[in-house]
């Protein structure tokens, strides 16, 4: 359980409070839809409500908290269990779509995917990682759209939206960027060769590895709550 002793050094008090609440959400203390009460947090952390209010705004920007009219701040439920379930389900659905899609891809689609791969690698090299991930998803949309399974594609889009906040920290991780680049290189080659099973296997492995990286990121975030505070506690 996250405790006030776990608060770590931060550049501002709202950021410190935001880190504490984020860890509590990740650790499952605030499941999806649970109300996060400013006053209760302020009392527990022995701070005023102002930094808690600002912290909740920060977390809303990360997608970890949403504001409901006449209710207040509620948790998105972005726990480790949610990540396991969502990435596991995505691996199954997206691999199946990829397998069905490859035989149906025409030369024009393959050419577009190759062009997008070039953009992904260029954006990666220039450090424009946010735009790189957006471009990479366009590659996958071309692939999945070719499967003809509109229902599955809509489900995947909903699952992506469900965890859209997760990669905020991960997207700045060079290891994840490297994993991303390797996947798109190998998958584009497999698409070009018409190897549906290889593409499906690559998609599944990529999503499982991404899920593992997210869980490791979560582990580090929660583990940080167990480290001694560096002479700092909100006051």
From TrEMBL:
<keyword id="KW-0238">DNA-binding</keyword>
<feature type="domain" description="HTH gntR-type">
    <location>
        <begin position="11"/>
        <end position="78"/>
    </location>
</feature>
<keyword id="KW-0804">Transcription</keyword>
<dbReference type="InterPro" id="IPR008920">
    <property type="entry name" value="TF_FadR/GntR_C"/>
</dbReference>
<protein>
    <submittedName>
        <fullName>DNA-binding transcriptional regulator, GntR family</fullName>
    </submittedName>
</protein>
<dbReference type="GO" id="GO:0003677">
    <property type="term" value="F:DNA binding"/>
</dbReference>
<dbReference type="InterPro" id="IPR036388">
    <property type="entry name" value="WH-like_DNA-bd_sf"/>
</dbReference>
<dbReference type="GO" id="GO:0003700">
    <property type="term" value="F:DNA-binding transcription factor activity"/>
</dbReference>
<dbReference type="InterPro" id="IPR036390">
    <property type="entry name" value="WH_DNA-bd_sf"/>
</dbReference>
<dbReference type="InterPro" id="IPR000524">
    <property type="entry name" value="Tscrpt_reg_HTH_GntR"/>
</dbReference>
<dbReference type="Pfam" id="PF07729">
    <property type="entry name" value="FCD"/>
</dbReference>
<dbReference type="InterPro" id="IPR011711">
    <property type="entry name" value="GntR_C"/>
</dbReference>
<keyword id="KW-0805">Transcription regulation</keyword>
<dbReference type="Pfam" id="PF00392">
    <property type="entry name" value="GntR"/>
</dbReference>
């Amino acid at each position: 359980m996250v405790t006030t002793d776990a608060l770590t050094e931060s550049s501002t008090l709202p950021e410190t409070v935001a880190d504490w609440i984020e860890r509590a959400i990740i650790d499952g203390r605030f499941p999806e839809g649970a109300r996060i009460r400013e006053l209760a947090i302020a009392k527990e952390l022995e701070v005023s409500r102002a930094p808690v209010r600002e912290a909740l705004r920060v977390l809303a920007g990360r997608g970890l908290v949403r504001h409901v009219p006449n209710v207040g701040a509620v948790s998105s439920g972005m726990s480790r269990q949610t990540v396991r379930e969502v990435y596991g389900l995505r691996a199954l659905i997206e691999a199946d779509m990829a397998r069905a899609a490859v035989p149906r891809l025409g030369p024009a689609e393959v050419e577009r995917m190759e062009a997008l791969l070039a953009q992904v690698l260029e954006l990666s090299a220039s450090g424009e990682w946010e735009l790189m991930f957006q471009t990479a998803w366009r590659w996958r949309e071309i692939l999945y759209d070719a499967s003809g399974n509109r229902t599955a594609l809509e489900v995947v889009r909903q699952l992506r939206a469900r965890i859209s906040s997760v990669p905020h920290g991960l997207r700045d991780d060079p290891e994840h960027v490297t994993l991303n680049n390797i996947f798109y290189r190998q998958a584009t080659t497999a698409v070009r060769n018409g190897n549906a099973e290889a593409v499906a296997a690559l998609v599944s492995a990529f999503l499982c590895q991404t899920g593992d990286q997210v869980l490791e990121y979560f582990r580090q975030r929660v583990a940080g709550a167990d480290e001694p505070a560096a002479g700092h506690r909100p006051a």
